[in-house]
Amino acid sequence: MSKSAKWSPKENESKRLPIYQHKSKLIQAVKDSSFLVVTGETGSGKTTQLPQYLREAGFCKDGKIGITQPRRVAAITVAQRVAQEMQCTLGKEVGYQVRFDDCTSQDTVVKYMTDGCLLREVLADPALSQYSVIILDEVHERSLNTDILLGLIKKVFTNPAKATKGRSFPLKVVVMSATLETDKLSAFLSNCPVFAIPGRTFPVTCTFGSAVGPKDLENFTPSALQVVKVALDIHTSEMAGDILVFLTGQSEIEHACDMLFEKAECIDYRYDVTDQSVDGLLILPLYGSMPTDQQRQIFQPPPPGIRKCVVATNIAATSLTIDGIKYIVDSGFVKQLNHNSRVGMDILEVVPISKSEAQQRAGRAGRTSAGKCFRIYTKEFWEKCMPEYTIPEIQRTSLTAVILTLKCLGIHDVIRFPYLDCPEERFILEALKQLYQFDAIDRRGNVTKLGELMVEFPLHPGLTRALLKAASLGCQDLLLPVAAMLSVENIFIRPGHPDKQKEADKKHRALAAKTGSMNDFATLLNVFQSCKSSDRPSAWCKENWIHWRALKSAFSVETQLRDILHRLQQKKDFPVETFDGNKSELFRRCLCTGYFTNVARRSIGKVFCTMDGHGSMVHIHPSSSLFDQEAELNWVIFHDVLATSRVYIRTVCPIRYEWVKDLLPKLHEVDAYELSSVAREEVTAEEMTKWESREAAKRQSEVSNEDAM
Ligand code: CDP
Ligand code: MG
């Protein structure tokens, strides 16, 4: 096949996209205005085509075109697709950058990246001087980082005095959104013009099921079985066309795929299926942390006669468009990181999606022809349990990391920052308080030396704090692997089959036992080191039921974190401390420096009580090596919290009360309001002294209470 013959279908394909007819008008609109809002149905070609149009129109002469995505998978797969359309090697003219994976070069002019990556670039170069165009994409998803970028862009680039500072030519900003809210976006960005790409959609018939009703809301753990049943029904009784199933997360998806595979094997295609042109089922999982080569498969059309069934997280709702989907199975749930004010922590929760989200999911079936959407929940569930709209992330997650970024950018008054939708003030205060507890800001709300070091790491501030403590004690080799392991997808394989699950559990327990001191962080370290020193690491993983590719990325992440640390250690004021004691204690003490906000003490039986002032009741998650060892524990720290029927703590480590005794009072020491600049202006010196003596007295009594326990 000649090269041109091979590529021409792709070219025609892109000419068939709705955006194509508006190409010249769109280019003109970008030329005419510094800010532009572009809207259009998902799949109309915004993400893949607009950057190419702008490049053709000469926008890359002065600088790069940067396109942000809230999700890493979207950034990577879209860059792959565009590189293919432009017939160039990925990483050359077209590249991508996501956390811990930079696939760009000197030649890159069209750069797809996560919003988090652009935020880091702003830190290093607030004028974004390398870029001629910034496209903030998928703004309707309202991810935390995209919202912050929007605010920063408004603050800097809508102000003529600041907009040209550090730049030799003006920046163009395009904001793309799949839905509504365009008026709000335009108003936010100095009433800029809105360009709407008319959509082409086909009707989708939606039916409600009976598997999930309002009474399931409290105790719902997403059962893969229910969606598998519906998917199989579609496969056997509906006409040809691909299926897209929405589930909540990696483990449910893998479980559902295993079940589907098993059941599909038993189908007799001569008798069991209605559409006789269908003679096979291709089952493909899709979730955020999947390896890229597997993700690419998702977009390929299935072989003739084969029906494709993609089992995905919410990622397939807007960021990625898979052609050929005719049927949707909607579980009605999504896994979301929410700040839970009842327990005072960020919790990974499985929650009902909003009605608008459900409509978006259904819409995926109507791109090329009429489709059908099968909801596994009842009409009553829809009416009573599903909210109208999804709450923006900025209003429901911890703001600690972004507030530190803003502070490092010199934005002191973080309460009056231009937010598209303001987070609740108490969330901002909570973040300031946490930064103070980690010594990242001082009592006046100014960034400390440590805070400046912390912002360099793309990790949760607590984990960074522990890592920096270890580095100052010269034992970073203990913490770097742990930080890396906690930054990649789950490394432990949990097979769906009960026998295999037992075998895997046994291996995992053995890995934990090898560390001597049952501690989930130490297990992570042990897995990392054992695999790294093994002659055949992939075989080692297979034998121990560990995801080899997850571990491979952990190796790469560890190297990158090591490089960042090494660069920072060259600075002359990098802290240095000493410690004498054994290695296990040293390791756990370092962890305590970052995790003293996540301390729990055993209360009765297997129940633990958090020490952050909320006193929430939590349980050790069954995946922990300390599960069923509760009786021997008194004090623990934990990495994160998962809420299903109970509130579970995961990645747990036993500690001694003495190690956190001096740190715990810090949790109650400061009134967060005092840390915000607003409060500072209002508080007089006299009031301040009074406040300080009152706090000191409170601290004293708290410490003696703790001692009494
Ligand atoms: O951004 P928007 O939702 O408007 O559309 P897009 O992501 O640019 O998608 C345009 C077309 O490219 C769709 O038909 C997608 O299926 C296709 N596409 C693909 O085949 N592979 C990708 N990795 C990304 C998009
Ligand atoms: Mg898009």
Automatic annotation (TrEMBL):
Hydrolase among keywords: yes
Residue ranges occupied by any Helicase C-terminal domain in the UniProt entry: 226-410
Protein name (record): RNA helicase
Domain Helicase ATP-binding: 27-198
Phylogenetic placement of the source organism: Eukaryota, Metazoa, Chordata, Craniata, Vertebrata
Enzyme class: hydrolase
Catalytic activity: ATP + H2O = ADP + phosphate + H(+)
A Pfam family that the UniProt record links to this protein: OB_NTP_bind
